[in-house]
């Protein structure tokens, strides 16, 4: 058995066309997940009545179960609920018309929120309480102190963890091909099945993932360097 090197390049050019979908399945869930994670982290830190237990349960469930399960449950569960509600209230809504990508984005966003909440929470806790006391002594409210003092430091310290989550969800987006969403892995599977050259096709897909990971890590290194200079009072 020999590797068809020219076919790897041909597969690469075909597979990379699906890169926008992969980026959408990575970036949008992380943006939505960051908002969810921030809210959940604050609820858990301040132990908001009732919501505290809900937040704990949410984080425990989504971090304690595989993301592929989240996608499949939402993919099969939401259409069932939509059809039943539509039938009961005569809404004339058909679940079959809902784009598959919305199910995947919903599942990934909820999972991202759980993981990011832990990163944000640990970052907030790491900021010394003395800084909060100083902020209060200057007349700042809890919200002002959180936004102006705590969160900037917490997020800056969490840059490496955010990078790991981004890379992790970049690779996790490959699960979407199980529900017929054509991202990088799905495109590789189609190319491989059409040409019966699975090794070459997945080598091409691996190169794409590897290249994206290198770019993300490079951006992270730059951001982390800038943050370190700023925290030390330096200039660039």
UniProtKB/TrEMBL annotation:
<protein>
    <submittedName>
        <fullName>Cysteine ABC transporter permease</fullName>
    </submittedName>
</protein>
<feature type="transmembrane region" description="Helical">
    <location>
        <begin position="98"/>
        <end position="116"/>
    </location>
</feature>
<feature type="transmembrane region" description="Helical">
    <location>
        <begin position="20"/>
        <end position="46"/>
    </location>
</feature>
<dbReference type="InterPro" id="IPR043429">
    <property type="entry name" value="ArtM/GltK/GlnP/TcyL/YhdX-like"/>
</dbReference>
<dbReference type="GO" id="GO:0006865">
    <property type="term" value="P:amino acid transport"/>
</dbReference>
<dbReference type="GO" id="GO:0043190">
    <property type="term" value="C:ATP-binding cassette (ABC) transporter complex"/>
</dbReference>
<feature type="transmembrane region" description="Helical">
    <location>
        <begin position="58"/>
        <end position="78"/>
    </location>
</feature>
<comment type="similarity">
    <text>Belongs to the binding-protein-dependent transport system permease family.</text>
</comment>
<dbReference type="Pfam" id="PF00528">
    <property type="entry name" value="BPD_transp_1"/>
</dbReference>
<keyword id="KW-0813">Transport</keyword>
<feature type="transmembrane region" description="Helical">
    <location>
        <begin position="199"/>
        <end position="223"/>
    </location>
</feature>
<dbReference type="GO" id="GO:0022857">
    <property type="term" value="F:transmembrane transporter activity"/>
</dbReference>
<dbReference type="InterPro" id="IPR000515">
    <property type="entry name" value="MetI-like"/>
</dbReference>
<feature type="domain" description="ABC transmembrane type-1">
    <location>
        <begin position="19"/>
        <end position="220"/>
    </location>
</feature>
<keyword id="KW-0812">Transmembrane</keyword>
<keyword id="KW-0472">Membrane</keyword>
<dbReference type="InterPro" id="IPR035906">
    <property type="entry name" value="MetI-like_sf"/>
</dbReference>
<keyword id="KW-1003">Cell membrane</keyword>
<dbReference type="InterPro" id="IPR010065">
    <property type="entry name" value="AA_ABC_transptr_permease_3TM"/>
</dbReference>
<keyword id="KW-1133">Transmembrane helix</keyword>
């Amino acid at each position: 058995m020999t590797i068809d090197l020219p076919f790897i390049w041909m597969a690469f050019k075909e597979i990379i066309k699906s890169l926008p979908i992969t980026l959408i399945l990575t970036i949008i869930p992380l943006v939505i997940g960051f908002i969810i994670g921030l809210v959940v982290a604050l609820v858990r830190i301040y132990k908001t009545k009732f919501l505290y237990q809900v937040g704990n349960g949410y984080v425990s469930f989504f971090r304690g179960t595989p993301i592929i399960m989240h996608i499949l449950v939402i993919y099969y569960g939401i259409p069932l609920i939509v059809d039943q509600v539509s039938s009961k209230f005569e809404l004339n809504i058909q679940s079959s018309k809902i784009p598959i990508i919305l199910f995947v984005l919903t599942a990934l966003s909820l999972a991202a929120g759980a993981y990011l909440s832990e990163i944000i929470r640990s970052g907030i806790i790491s900021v010394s309480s003395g800084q909060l006391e100083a902020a209060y002594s200057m007349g700042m409210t809890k919200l002002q102190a959180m936004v102006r003092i705590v969160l900037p430091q917490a997020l800056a310290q969490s840059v490496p963890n955010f990078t790991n989550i981004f890379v992790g969800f970049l690779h996790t987006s490959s699960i979407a091909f199980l529900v017929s969403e054509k991202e990088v892995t799905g495109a590789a599977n189609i190319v491989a099945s059409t040409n019966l050259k699975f090794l070459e096709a997945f080598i091409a897909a691996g190169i794409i993932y590897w290249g994206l990971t290198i770019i993300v890590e490079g951006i992270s290194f730059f951001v982390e360097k800038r943050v370190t200079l700023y925290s030390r009072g330096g200039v660039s």
